[in-house]
Amino acid sequence: MARYGTQYGPDITFLGVERCDWADPSTYAGADVVVLGAPFDGGTSHRPGTRFGPSAVRQACYLPHDGSRPSVALRVDALRDLLVYDAGDVEMFSGDAVRSVRDLEEAVAAVAATGAVPVVLGGDHTIAWPDAAGVARHVGQGRVSMVHFDAHADTGDVEFGSLVGHGQPMRRLIESGAVRGDRFLQVGLRGYWPGPQTLAWMAEQGMRSYEMTEITARGLDECLTEASAIATDDCDGVFLSVDIDVCDPGHAPGTGTPEPGGLTARQLLDSVRRLAYELPVVGVDVVEVSPPYDTAEVTAYLANRVVLEALSGMARRRRDAQDGTTWDPRQPLLEGR
Amino acid sequence: MARYGTQYGPDITFLGVERCDWADPSTYAGADVVVLGAPFDGGTSHRPGTRFGPSAVRQACYLPHDGSRPSVALRVDALRDLLVYDAGDVEMFSGDAVRSVRDLEEAVAAVAATGAVPVVLGGDHTIAWPDAAGVARHVGQGRVSMVHFDAHADTGDVEFGSLVGHGQPMRRLIESGAVRGDRFLQVGLRGYWPGPQTLAWMAEQGMRSYEMTEITARGLDECLTEASAIATDDCDGVFLSVDIDVCDPGHAPGTGTPEPGGLTARQLLDSVRRLAYELPVVGVDVVEVSPPYDTAEVTAYLANRVVLEALSGMARRRRDAQDGTTWDPRQPLLEGR
Amino acid sequence: MARYGTQYGPDITFLGVERCDWADPSTYAGADVVVLGAPFDGGTSHRPGTRFGPSAVRQACYLPHDGSRPSVALRVDALRDLLVYDAGDVEMFSGDAVRSVRDLEEAVAAVAATGAVPVVLGGDHTIAWPDAAGVARHVGQGRVSMVHFDAHADTGDVEFGSLVGHGQPMRRLIESGAVRGDRFLQVGLRGYWPGPQTLAWMAEQGMRSYEMTEITARGLDECLTEASAIATDDCDGVFLSVDIDVCDPGHAPGTGTPEPGGLTARQLLDSVRRLAYELPVVGVDVVEVSPPYDTAEVTAYLANRVVLEALSGMARRRRDAQDGTTWDPRQPLLEGR
Amino acid sequence: MARYGTQYGPDITFLGVERCDWADPSTYAGADVVVLGAPFDGGTSHRPGTRFGPSAVRQACYLPHDGSRPSVALRVDALRDLLVYDAGDVEMFSGDAVRSVRDLEEAVAAVAATGAVPVVLGGDHTIAWPDAAGVARHVGQGRVSMVHFDAHADTGDVEFGSLVGHGQPMRRLIESGAVRGDRFLQVGLRGYWPGPQTLAWMAEQGMRSYEMTEITARGLDECLTEASAIATDDCDGVFLSVDIDVCDPGHAPGTGTPEPGGLTARQLLDSVRRLAYELPVVGVDVVEVSPPYDTAEVTAYLANRVVLEALSGMARRRRDAQDGTTWDPRQPLLEGR
Amino acid sequence: MARYGTQYGPDITFLGVERCDWADPSTYAGADVVVLGAPFDGGTSHRPGTRFGPSAVRQACYLPHDGSRPSVALRVDALRDLLVYDAGDVEMFSGDAVRSVRDLEEAVAAVAATGAVPVVLGGDHTIAWPDAAGVARHVGQGRVSMVHFDAHADTGDVEFGSLVGHGQPMRRLIESGAVRGDRFLQVGLRGYWPGPQTLAWMAEQGMRSYEMTEITARGLDECLTEASAIATDDCDGVFLSVDIDVCDPGHAPGTGTPEPGGLTARQLLDSVRRLAYELPVVGVDVVEVSPPYDTAEVTAYLANRVVLEALSGMARRRRDAQDGTTWDPRQPLLEGR
Amino acid sequence: MARYGTQYGPDITFLGVERCDWADPSTYAGADVVVLGAPFDGGTSHRPGTRFGPSAVRQACYLPHDGSRPSVALRVDALRDLLVYDAGDVEMFSGDAVRSVRDLEEAVAAVAATGAVPVVLGGDHTIAWPDAAGVARHVGQGRVSMVHFDAHADTGDVEFGSLVGHGQPMRRLIESGAVRGDRFLQVGLRGYWPGPQTLAWMAEQGMRSYEMTEITARGLDECLTEASAIATDDCDGVFLSVDIDVCDPGHAPGTGTPEPGGLTARQLLDSVRRLAYELPVVGVDVVEVSPPYDTAEVTAYLANRVVLEALSGMARRRRDAQDGTTWDPRQPLLEGR
Predict the structure, then answer these.
(1) Nearest-CA residue of chain D relative to B270?
(2) Cβ separation of C95 and B94 shorter than 8 Å?
(3) What is the ipTM score, two decimals?
């Protein structure tokens, strides 16, 4: 049996949802979502600690761990309106990135094969390669577009002598054909990496990267609208990869490679909710939460809410599709939503 | 004599203002404002620590503790233009919420009876019940409207088997008649609590709750304008209750139940200043500052400034009323204000 | 059903042992030990946070949470050689100390009634009253002696207007007759509390309190030998109450009322192991771990090991009784033990 | 030889750029920029720690310390496109502010005399006096305008019995004639200091101070445009002095006198970049980073990026001047910039 | 009037004792002890922060701030059995060490002149010069011996170009004749400073320095006995100077120049108590507590207890002198002491 | 060229000693000691962070980084009396433990081949395998004995599916023949790992492991004397491997797998000094310092001093051998040593 439980610390599930075994689909028959933990920091280029990310993100909440989270804003309870399981962590030895990545892809692919949406809790961003590749094995190579929130492009080639690492997953995904370069949308880039050569390679692939300067100048909403149009053009599903360092270090200090000048937590939550509501999400990962660098669990809480907003958006999307209704952000809270 | 001093740590007053004894009105004759500490965390549902809030908020300032704080923006010195006293802490044993709440209401009511505005430093939000109820005993049941900044509605019914706790004060206030449900304005709600049943109860009471989604979509200023109109409609005074967790955890990490995606510190300070300037404030509390979870006193400083903005707004309101002038936020600082 | 799970955070058990329901003895039939969590800080006179103690102590370990901990020194695996269950937390609302204490005593008494040894994870020291009283209901009033590791005597009468609090449990136990004053052994006292009047009361009860000065002058071993003789004189069992602040704040910073000049961690672990090996332990509590004040989990780890040393000592005691052997601390590790 | 290396800790340079000796211009012949460390906190009125600022700001980066930082947004590598040296720290004994300030001015003046732009890493804001005065000795008294980002006006007269301190440098600069009062632009002021008398003095000097209220009401961009016009009117160069506390404490907790309600990190970085791109910068200092109060290096990272944005703006300004091009913030990242 | 109150933060006194003005002896007529704060870190060679030492040490206690601390071990209440006042802080601008030191000596001398024992709360160790020199002005030059607990000899000559600093006070005291070199006893030295030249100078002065190696080999008690004999040989009083870094960093992390391998907290407290009980103490300082580097107030608590043990030892010394009794550390706590 | 500099952060050397390139022996001709950094945490089973160990240990000192550290106790300046170089870090990608270990062994062997003593700064304890194996390639297989300070035996077989990790190096060394099992001395073991099977394997190898219980019962000095005799029996050199977690977490919180009840810092420093003075040391590593979990650099300081005590002991050993003298720990500091 493949269920591993929590690799570090006690065996818990995301906010108390039911457990399952990813290798035994009968344990999550009919699931809408399966949470997987990827407790890995062997691919990070600077501060480690993301191996404790899955555990921290699963429990960063002041409410009871009862498998229920009714969204005040969206009026859905994603953990109940959707059938959500937690398959525990995939065992990932940080000292062997190649093996760890391979094992994770198997688990993600197994989940995706059942039609459930895998939601992977990182771990450093190395895992985006197996995450999206595992989904693409089900949806189809090149049929998944990527919306990628991050301060960094993560399109490096070789780092520390390795093809596998948290600065390279997006290149691997494009090179392998899992995701088309011209269906690759990046939001929040900034800073001093990568250099011109890599940016040129990105341009050649047809990637569309929204740097913070453009976002500030044009507005985040406009950029997201544009990105959404690209993402849904001739693709069958969207993978949402959220590196918590897309937010400003003031909002997300607990991460390995913080880059000042990012989104606010509010912006990220609104963006994730909107995309999950508007787009056909087929996979999600939330990565780079490093608890040893966090303060008062601020970053873990944010990542926990990113997961919940994604799930709540998906739940509301389904309900509105069934009911023929539309969610209006301007409607007063207590006038029904 | 009822003056207790600081319950925890040395006996200090808010930024060095004069001391008084709430039970002996002669010690604060003519006072405009009386500060009270409510060092209580027996009602919190998660992280404690707010018992140290009054002490932390009283002293979180890098300037001399001399009972003077000239506002650069408003050109008033609230601690001197108003007659402000600090009555010390009401003794509140966290292990006995019912008794603590009762004792606090007595103190607040005694202060309010003199016409002074009580400014209560929490403590967890449990204290909003005795705070506003104590004021209503003077102003009149149902004659006080409430403007409530918070991530949470705090309208729960029974939690942990108790009617008294930091998730329930607003329900108690409405049920008791102290505050009318349709004069209850909430700003900054978000997240995954309370559930539909409680939201339905809130709607029935005619509450008006501005969730962050609406605030983002419509703009905070517009929401506040709308709320102010309701608050002053057929009411004699406004109670301002500021839960520091209305701000994003990045701006206020030191709190018990942080909810990502909140206001910025700038937004909160501007809002409190504006409301104190525009509305007839009869009571204030600033709650949920938990020093053990704070970093570099960021949260305590913010709460200290919330108090000062409220007092400065009140001082400027009075001066403008006397002078027939109006404060213009767009005026350059050095061109007279 | 009375099993509550972990009151704060996810539902976990002590290092992964099996779960049970204290109210249903069939769920722990034949148990040697039942762990109970007492997540309470409503009785603390200073820094709170012990409500998170049970959760922190249950999981403060770098080894897998697999319900096994083979002691290198004692060559027993207490979690397997003994039948150990974890009944989760008793719900304790910190805002109602009286009710919380009453509920805890019920749970402890229920466990003790089955012959299992209750091991209660605090929580502040308030809980020693219900802990030892609950055990005495089974063993007999006055038939349980107490060995109490602490910086403080905890023999106060009324604090903050309450008979219930973390400075008073030992007085309540003696006054109620649950524990005889002259079978009350205290180890590690120091500092500036209580005052002469309380010390006089203690002397009248025939208590034997080893202050750090005496311990330093005479040696800890000699003091423990003396204490053990008293504890087993005309009593049927020993309750071991370990306040983590008996250790020096350098070894246990995460606590509410730290008093410099205490035992080292090594001294405490050796003492607890020795007493559990030599004496007929009928109940244990480990209290006053306050995670928000801890650094790098140092204090939680120490408390976790205090529990393990107590259990390992008990397990070895039983094995040696069966085998007619004796444990020799001087024997080299690898020469069989 | 005057090169001192790093006063505290190992001898390092800003992100690995080459070393030089400020007293020997041949060691930095042709330099565009010379970094100087000012490890001083003897002038701070509250929390110290800025003595470790230069060391922290030099190394707060997750990328290799290789003297290269290609700006993703601006498409320049400031550390390579400009000739940048690091002269190490000026020895500054915090216990002798007068001597320290004098020595620093010598070093800055020596650098400025060569035509290189001194970039001084503080240290508390005391150093702005020698920094700008040192530059003015080269550019001309009254020929340098000042753009000053700060929560505080720093125009006090005497504090703690001294003319030298972090609350007074701007007054010293104006009084000495180094900088004209009516070419003094302040951005981000707020809070409760200084009082009316000092504000009156500032008005008399013709200073233009943008308090946060005006910035919020009018927009930061509009204010900067206005300020830029004044700064370049009949002046030969602009000194840019950035006190990190201009940002909100949520974005910059590691500082000595935090004032809630400031700019976001994004706003500061955009402003610095814009000004460095648009104005003829002749000197820069970045001050008040206090590592002991920082969390997860958030503040040090921000200050490091402020330096890089200033240098990158300068590099792009030069390139555009040479190429006759203009940088467009709205241009997509991968469409060439 | 010279009373300054607390230079940083609110105006408090040591554990709530009465206030006085050092410049007006009538305000402390008959005092046995006068506490003075020396909030200075301008002389430290590494981590600052000791400016907040006096404030931290005054309040680091979980008991009420009521001017009473009955010693459990010694059965005296030093704050009541002795007449103890707190004169607040001497204003010490860290940016001007020379002036600060001069002003402090005046204050200490004024207190000593009345016959009261000055107890000075540092501040960095720079202050030992004015502290002991101020006392010697009353007792007589060369008539005061020094017992000095420290990891460092503090006998440097010139550091950072200054005669005044925390590495040089002991040299200044000997050079000035205030204290005889051969009545200078040092306890706890270790590490890698000072070098051979300074050690040779120390030997020439006839100093007696107990390095940790000797202390470990011979035992602390034996060393103290030897030191006490020297200290009382042809001298009229003993100054006790306690640098908190004499303790191991595990017991005292909050300090500027930590040196591993020091005393335990228990050893320091026992030593200070013993010396205060056995020797004619005429002055005390407790220095180098740096709150920004402290964790959970561990170091501040320790320093607070060092003060209390010194005072309690003095109080018991007086009582035993009056009663003709002797304190026996081996006596059981509850058998009268 | 193989010199890599510091892998993380700026390029620094141990306390400022000269640089060299391990692959080019001409750069360290005649060296007595070569420091190597092993910035690796890919082998840790719990908390990571030791990748920052080499950088932290190199600089954790409040004294100038000038390549000189005169030992007060031993009267040698190890960094000058010995010829000490720092070769920087070996590049070790934490995501590839096998490759990293192989590369490190090459570097260590290259250094050892020149006759210099390699001193390796970890990194997690995985590195002890390449460290001692690299030395054995020079000294001879089975000709190096091992003295190993640690809370853990590190003799696991396979962990996380890998032969390489921080729980297994000692087994690899014995299995490979590099170190004889019966010349393997372990000091400080304790806790709950490994289990009986592994202990049996250890016994079979003839290992001698001093668990804390035996150390406490017999005394550390006696145990070390016994161990030294074994270590020098028919072996040509001693490798000293110091896992910082041998100390109590109170003295060394910044580590990955803390085990309460360890040595004090004083005990460790004395032990390392004594062994380096008495035994023919041919290699040293100091491992498991994890800066993200450290507080106030306490652990990094301790590790820095462990290195210095080892080097100082070696330097004094050589001097005494040359002079025919002996060091006496009981000799007073200032009477010549």
Answers:
(1) D213
(2) yes
(3) 0.97
